[in-house]
Amino acid sequence: MQYGKYTLTEIISADVIRKRIREIAQQLSDRFKDEVPIFIGVLNGSFIVLADLMRAMTIDCEMDFIKLSSYAGTESTGTVRLLKDISADITNRHVIIVEDIIDSGLTIQFLKERLEGASPKSLTIVTLLLKPDVAKIKFAIDYVGFEIPPDFVVGYGLDYQQKMRHLPAIYRLEGNNL
Ligand code: IMP
Ligand code: MG
């Protein structure tokens, strides 16, 4: 589809996303039954996946947000900056990190180390999307919604220059001179 001067190609439909989120929520609800896990969403991109994931949970859960930055345009800058910290105390809590996408793996690496420093009872990582050909991570990602090729994608919370987050599905942003 055409979006202003950009061409977007849908790669994962809203319906397929909804079903996969429901599956992951069910698995998390089973795994943490009798516990009250706390979701930590990584702003800005994960706000939609977190909202949908949380509403599909069948157990009590809490949430908070952290804001990090490693990106400018379509390229990782190679350094992660903390823009907003969590306010909840996660010591001795079951923590579930929710990411929109793991690309280079830099952000999740930083986040894992930082949250582990607060001594949670457990740390689980959920990401809607993973670019396995790009990601260089030395630990397991517990729940992956979809593995995708190393293209730049937008929609369902993911942006290009802060725009297109509101689009309902995941689209590949076409063009190599973005
Ligand atoms: P990483 O640190 O390289 O793994 O990148 C993680 C962050 O970069 C994600 O949380 C996104 O905010 C952003 N990002 C990476 N790839 C894409 C993409 O294809 N579209 C939009 N944002 C992306
Ligand atoms: Mg992000």
Keywords:
6-stranded mixed β-sheet; 178 residues; 3 helices; alpha/beta; 37% strand; Rossmann fold; single chain; binds inosinic acid
Descriptive report:
The protein is α/β, with parallel strands linked by helices. The chain has a domain at 17-68 and 78-148: Rossmann fold (3-Layer(aba) Sandwich). The protein has helices at 14-31, 47-55, 106-116, and strands at residues 2-3, 6-12, 38-43, 62-72, 75-84, 94-102, 122-130, 143-147, 153-154, 170-173. It has a six-stranded mixed β-sheet with strand order 5-4-3-6-7-8, with helices on both faces. Helix 1 packs across helix 2. The protein is globular, with a radius of gyration of 16 Å. The structure holds inosinic acid and magnesium ion (MG). Magnesium ion binds at residues 42, 45, 100.
How many individual helices? 3
The residue-averaged pLDDT reads: 94
End-to-end distance, in Å? 17 Å
CATH C-level category of the domain at 17-68 and 78-148: Alpha Beta
Summarize the amount of helix as a percent range. 10-25%
Radius of gyration: 16 Å
Ranges where pLDDT stays below 50 over 5 or more residues in a row are none
Helix-strand topology string: EEHEHEEEHEEEE
Largest sheet: 6 strands, mixed
Order of strands, widest sheet: 5-4-3-6-7-8
Tell me the CATH architecture of the domain at 17-68 and 78-148. Answer: 3-Layer(aba) Sandwich
Ligand types: inosinic acid, magnesium ion
Q: Judging from the principal axes of the Cα atoms, what is the shape?
A: globular
